[in-house]
Amino acid sequence: xxxxxxxxxxxxxxxxxxxxxxxxxxxxxxxxxxxxxxxxxxxxxxxxxxxxxxxxxxxxxxxxxxxxxxxxxxxxxxxxxxxxxxxxxxxxxxxxxxxxxxxxxxxxxxxxxxxxxxxxxxxxxxxxxxxxxxxxxxxxxxxxxxxxxxxxxxxxxxxxxxxxxxxxxxxxxxxxxxxxxxxxxxxxxxxxxxxx
Length: 196
Fold this sequence. Notes:
The chain is an alpha/beta fold. The chain has a single domain (2-195), classed as Purple Acid Phosphatase, chain A, domain 2 (4-Layer Sandwich). The chain has helices at 13-23, 42-48, 66-72, 112-119, 150-159, and strands spanning 2-6, 28-31, 56-58, 76-77, 81-85, 88-93, 127-130, 140-141, 145-146, 163-166, 176-179, 182-186, 192-195. The radius of gyration is 15 Å and the shape is globular. The chain starts with a strand and ends with a strand.
C-alpha cells in the first residue's frame, strides 16, 4: 500500500494543492492534524482536500477539534479508534498532548491521562497517527526542548506499530526517530511517502 502522509497545513493553499496533486498516486492519504489556523477557516479549507475524501484518514490537531473536523470532511476521522484498510490496522488520536501553555486562542488539547485512556482502547496498530509526537522522538521545540507526549510514547512502546505519524512540533518537521521497531515521522506540510 502506497501512503501519502502530511500534517500541519494551517490553511496553506499551496501546500493543499501539492498534497492534492500528489494524492493521485496514493492508495491512502493520512493527515495528522492542524488543517485550520487558530480554530478558524476549517470548512472552506477542507473543501480543497475533498478530491481524495474517502481514501483519507485524519486526526484533528489542536487548531481544530475532532467534532469540527468530522463536520468539515467526508474523510474518516479517528480519536482513540482503529480502522482497517486491507490487512493494515490504523489507529489514531488528535489534539495537543500534553496541553499547551496558555495562548490567546482556544487550543484543542488533551491531558496525558485523557490521551492514555483513548490510546488504551487501541489493541493493535500497524500505523498509529497522532497529532502530538511521542516524548523524546521528533519532538524538539527550539525554545522549550522536547514537548512530546508520554501517553503517545507509552502507546508506541506497547503497540510497536511499523509507523507513528505525527506533526504538531514545527521545529521537528521532517525528522524521524526510532522507538523499538517503530519509525516515528514528524511529517510537516509536504507530501511524505511510506509503503507498507
